[in-house]
Amino acid sequence: MKVASWRSALAATLFVQVISSLAAATIPLMGPLLTQKWGLPATSIGYASAASSAGICWFLACGNSMLDHYGPIRTIQIGLLALVLGLVVFLLPLGAIGLSGALLFGLGVAPNIPAGSQVLMRTAPPRHRTLVFSIKQAGMPLGGMIAGLIIPALVAGMGFNAGLFVLIAMLVMSAALVQPFQRALDGEKGHGDRAWPRHFLSPSSLRRAVAVIRLNRELPILTLICVSFSVAQSSTTAYTATYMVTEHGKSLLEAGQYMAVFLGASALARILFGWIADRTGKGTILFASLGLATGVALLLLISPIGSHPVFVYACMIMAGATTMGWNGVFMAEIARSSPPSQVGPVTSAVNLFGFFGSISGPLVFAVTATLTGGFVWPFVIIALQAALVGLTALWLLRRPPTTIAH
């Protein structure tokens, strides 16, 4: 395939990753405002994060027939419109029912996971595959970083509702902007199974998702790490802004700036780790090793060093690079370990388990924070489990990796 084809694929998937992540960052960044609007305590933002992750799990478990029917780019466009609907729900005075908007957010973000992997695995040059995947995955924290800079400013300058209307317009325009890529990149879609809505609501889709993880010895290990890292990532992104506001007296604007640094560091780390993995051929080992680094970084974040004005940004950089820098290497390793015809289903299945971690992480964090009356112990638990799983995975990966020829 020509070089222009993989560049077009990367441009389209990266653009959508940035835009959808920017919109998804509305939940953690507007946490204090959303929970106030819903009449709930500030710690309840973890339940919104869990609802978003539930929407992602739903699509990953049951959305492959939809992806096969419409093709990757069209499915991504449908996801952008689901994000629009989620924002509309946030605008309505629905109280706790507003959490349903977070579920729509999950359904909107999820399509870019298997769809992006399907397109990039088909087009990316093998010797640069991990780097290409990492660049695409860097769009997630990059979108969050941009959100940290503009969303609090939009709300402060225009008000809550007007700020959301700007985001809605941005998402609608983005869905239109990727349309030129649709015909070229959706050329290998499936046979147009019109029964996809039934599959989307079928429990049997979950059983099929579990079965494909056993196609390769490494996939269960990668799934274990993914669950652990997802617990750490979802909890950290959901609570860091609120932690800075409630525990350290920072303003919403200051918290947004901290999150921008946090997410910017993770975007650069994803690209760096992807480059290292391509050069060393040790992507899986690098992926597992980040568990130890994640544990150390989170402990530093909540230590006295992490709250000191001189070191706070350094701690944000370390936490962002470790808790979120793993994703690009992970996606490439999942694709490498999958049969060529099963990249989409395997990617969905492994990420499905990962997002179960994304659901349970904020929930456990919320319950622990309520029981202990603060954020310190939840962060400690998240850090220790990441380090323990990283060590376990390194021990399990002592045998040479199995590579499926592409």
Distance between the termini: 14 Å
Number of domains: 1
Gyration radius from CA atoms, angstroms: 20 Å
Mean pLDDT: 80
Sheet having the most strands: none
Shape: globular
Strand coverage percent: under 5%
Number of helices: 22
Q: Percent of residues in helical segments?
A: over 70%
CATH superfamily assignment? MFS general substrate transporter like domains
**Any guess at the CATH architecture?**
Up-down Bundle
CATH-derived topology: Growth Hormone, Chain: A
Low-confidence stretches: 401-406
**CATH C-level class:** Mainly Alpha
Structure overview:
This protein has 406 residues and is mainly α. The chain has a single domain (3-179, 206-396), classed as MFS general substrate transporter like domains (Growth Hormone, Chain: A, Up-down Bundle). The protein is built from 22 helices and no strands. α14 packs across α21. Mean pLDDT is 80; it is low at 401-406.
Any key phrases for this structure?
406 residues, mainly alpha, Growth Hormone, Chain: A, 81% helix, 0% strand, globular
Summarize the structure.
The protein is mostly helical and 406 residues long. The chain has helices at 3-24, 26-29, 31-38, 45-62, 64-70, 72-91, 99-109, 112-123, 129-137, 139-158, 160-177, 179-185, 196-200, 204-212, 218-248, 252-280, 283-301, 304-307, 312-324, 327-336, 343-372, 376-396. It has a single domain, classed as Up-down Bundle (Growth Hormone, Chain: A), CATH 1.20.1250.
